[in-house]
Design goal:
Jelly Rolls; alpha+beta
Length: 776
């Protein structure tokens, strides 16, 4: 099909008004909501459900209902709102971000703070000014007249009640009172679930792949990664959306909203539909629509919609939509955007060169009609038309739009703006009569806040400016017209603010530890509030005081390495308790190779039972009756007592419980202990491995008894899951090890009681009994 060439008339009379301020180069954008989030545009009484991608500016309000949350961005600044939060922009322009926080929780991540830029959060009893980029949290509860300011990173200043003081990184300030305030500064508490959620959302933004090709100051860039792909093209790096309907084209799936001071602004339905429709340009390349973001180094300037308007009487007649038919075409690379609102030539340069490369000198100087060919007019489905009624009421476009054929397009005329007067629905949004919309309590909506900087005047209601908008359809009112309407009658709903009195900077108090209870204490000499604000306390409980501080550190590090699900057993003075704790070292000896057999059989029985009950974490062996033996055995744990000096040898056996914890870590690499001369040690220690012998395979007897007991059981760590080796059939092995026992010919009782019930001083193992019988 023959491509249609668009030769249209462009009225480019851009005459700056003296004293006319340019509109802000940034807006807010609600990009994420959970639960019930309501929105009230400036100058409108109705509340409607918050619409994703709708630009938010001065005077607009949000209410986040109970159990809900929302995320908003202003350029690179992230604003996250918690449950039951009332939020309003008192001012939002190029240099000022002034927020009214009547109640609730607000988390702010400020990435950049330019020279001369101001960020202020105003609450019912104080104003908080952010002085450095960083992470901040403000919780306020007017019922208790308490505000908490937590600074994770950055620096801020609190002003109120004739006082001012700074809050530094890692600190939390509690401010109480109304006309006069009391405050205290604590160490910041650990992050709670709300802080963690905010940190995760911020990490997602900072690791966005799109930051390689877009400016971090561009609102909405983080949503591009999950919804499209970047690729190289003749235009440089471009982005194309995924999962779009057949025949999709830019500026088709969404609706038009009237937002002062820009006028008609596009609100896209797609989750990613903010950045590609307010910055950059679109191009049809390789049978796909691709978005060209523009220079990465430039600070993006917000535009309500980067389109060229097409209309006129002949165009409406050809489309059978009446005289009020209006159409638009997306601007392509290097095509200039001519704002329909009042601006200066400098603004026109910035709004174009921040999102594409275009020479706008001729546009500034031209006052005559100019012919322009729009490259995207030849792309499929690029130009659509709707009736004036559809656009003026803010209805969805793709449901009622019509494609514009080439013949109708040739009869059209390029318009400075869409010559359509807005209706209330285009300002407030759809659903304003819905009964499901939640509103903030009346007391919260009218709550006065303390301000450090005076905000601009309250917005003029739409009802009072609607007549003036109808007299010049499609063109927003300038500042002079708005001031005249404001002076003709006071606003019906003014924002209540209290100017903070002049403040003498207070010397920063010493940061106090967190209070032992939930109540936040005020400074000495002032009243003490009843409790901190509800939002902060719900998600960040204070840890109760611990009566025995030494116990807590001893218990907290213990579970860190291995005992994740096994509490650490406290040391006890009764040796029989050890078997209950012996299974703990099971994980450690899994991969430990068995020690080779040794040539000294008598030493093995002395060492075999010792590691069995006390591998990695087993306390020391129970006391023995022969003190000299202990010095021979105690040097072995020397590597283990990292944080506990070894107890000096004593002559009193009952001192052994003090030594028991020392070998716990040292049993892993402890060399075999020298033979001891006190036989009763073996029975007292050998029964201990009973609990750990459940899964230990039975070691078959070997022909060389000295080697078998030898050292195979010696790797105590590996004997956790191995049952105790049965007594060896060769009794002479035991006498070789027990030379210390006084020779006597009296046979010992043959029966042996269970290990825990044996008498440590008199009980002897069966091997000893057989040995003594042999001697007789």
């Amino acid at each position: 099909m023959k491509s249609a060439t668009l030769s249209l008339l462009l009225l480019v009379t851009v005459v700056p008004l003296l004293g006319q301020a340019d509109p802000p180069d940034r807006v807010g954008r609600v990009g994420y909501t959970s639960g019930s989030v309501s929105f009230q545009p400036a100058g409108v009484e109705d509340w409607v459900p918050a619409s994703p991608n709708r630009p938010i500016t001065t005077g607009d309000q949000l209410w986040v209902d109970e159990g809900s949350s929302a995320e908003m961005h202003v350029g690179s600044t992230a604003l996250r709102l918690g449950s039951q939060t009332a939020f309003q922009f008192l001012n939002l322009d190029d240099a000022n971000t002034q927020i009214r926080l009547s109640t609730g929780s607000l988390n702010i991540h400020l990435r950049f703070l330019d020279d001369g830029e101001s960020v202020e959060v105003d609450t019912p009893n104080m104003a908080f000014s952010i002085l450095r980029p960083g992470d901040y949290r403000i919780d306020t509860q007017p019922d208790s007249q308490t505000t908490l300011v937590t600074v994770r990173d950055g620096t801020g200043e609190i002003t109120g009640g004739g006082q001012a003081f700074s809050v530094h990184p890692g600190e939390q300030a509690s401010v109480t009172g109304d006309q006069s305030i009391n405050y205290n500064v604590y160490r910041a508490p650990d992050p709670d679930d709300w802080d963690s959620w905010c940190r995760d959302r911020q990490t997602r933004e900072e690791h966005s792949a799109s930051l390689r090709w877009v400016s971090p100051r561009m609102t909405g860039y983080a949503d591009l990664d999950e919804n499209g792909d970047w690729r190289s093209s003749p235009y440089g790096e471009v982005w194309s959306p995924r999962n779009v309907p057949n025949g999709w084209a830019p500026y088709h799936y969404g609706h038009w909203a009237w937002i002062d001071p820009w006028g008609w602004s596009w609100v896209d339905d797609a989750a990613w539909g903010f950045a590609p429709f307010h910055y950059g340009r679109w191009a049809y390349w390789s049978n796909n629509w691709v978005w060209i973001p523009g220079p990465v180094e430039a600070r993006p300037v917000y535009a309500p919609a980067l389109v060229a308007w097409v209309g006129g009487g002949r165009f409406g007649a050809s489309m059978s939509l009446g005289d009020g038919a209006v159409a638009w075409v997306p601007l392509g690379p290097r095509e200039a955007y001519v704002p329909p609102y009042h601006t200066s030539p400098t603004y026109v340069t910035h709004v174009n060169n921040s999102t594409t490369i275009v020479n706008v000198t001729n546009i500034h100087n031209t006052t005559n009609v100019t012919t322009v060919n729009y490259v995207n007019a030849r792309a499929p489905n690029a130009v659509v038309a709707v009736s004036a009624q559809t656009m003026g009421s803010g209805r969805s476009v793709h449901e009622v739009s019509r494609p514009v054929p080439a013949a109708a397009l040739a009869s059209g005329q390029v318009m400075r703006s869409a010559q359509v007067a807005p209706q209330l629905q285009a300002v407030a949004g759809h659903g304003n009569a819905s009964v499901n919309v939640r509103r903030p309590p009346a007391g919260i909506a009218n709550q006065a806040v303390v301000v450090k900087r005076p905000p601009p005047p309250s917005p003029v209601s739409f009802a009072r400016r609607q007549q003036a908008l109808q007299s010049n359809p499609g063109v927003p009112l300038n500042a002079e017209q708005m001031q005249q309407i404001r002076q003709s009658a006071p606003p019906s709903r003014a924002i209540v603010v209290r100017q903070a009195p002049p403040a003498a900077h207070v010397v920063q108090p010493v940061v106090a530890p967190r209070p032992p209870q939930n109540a936040i204490q005020a400074r000495p000499g002032g009243p003490q509030p009843s409790a901190p604000p509800a939002p902060a306390q719900v998600n960040r409980p204070e840890a109760p005081p611990v009566p025995n501080p030494p116990v807590q550190p001893a218990y907290r590090p213990a579970p860190a390495p291995a005992p994740v699900n096994r509490p650490v057993a406290p040391p006890v003075s009764n040796p029989p308790v050890q078997p209950a704790y012996r299974p703990a070292p099971a994980p450690a000896p899994v991969n430990r190779p068995a020690a080779p057999p040794v040539s000294n059989p008598p030493a093995q029985p002395a060492y075999r039972p010792a590691p069995a009950p006390a591998p990695v974490n087993r306390p020391a062996a129970p006391p023995v009756s022969n003190p000299p033996v202990q010095p021979a055995y105690r040097p072995a744990p020397a590597p283990a007592p990292v944080n506990r000096p070894a107890a000096p040898p004593v002559s009193n056996p009952p001192v052994q419980p003090a030594y028991r914890p020392a070998p716990a870590p040292a049993q892993v690499n402890r060399p075999a202990a020298a033979p001891v001369s006190n036989p009763p040690v073996q029975p007292a220690y050998r029964p201990a491995p009973a609990p750990a012998q459940v899964n230990r395979p039975v070691t078959p007897p070997v022909s060389n008894p000295p080697v078998q007991p030898a050292y195979r059981p010696a790797p105590a760590p590996a004997q956790v899951n191995r049952p105790a080796a049965p007594p060896v059939p060769n009794p002479p092995v035991q006498p070789a090890y027990r030379p210390a026992a006084p020779p006597h010919g009296t046979a010992q009782p043959a029966a042996a009681q269970p290990p825990p019930k044996q008498d440590k001083k008199t009980a002897k193992p069966p091997q000893d009994k057989e040995k003594e019988k042999g001697k007789e």
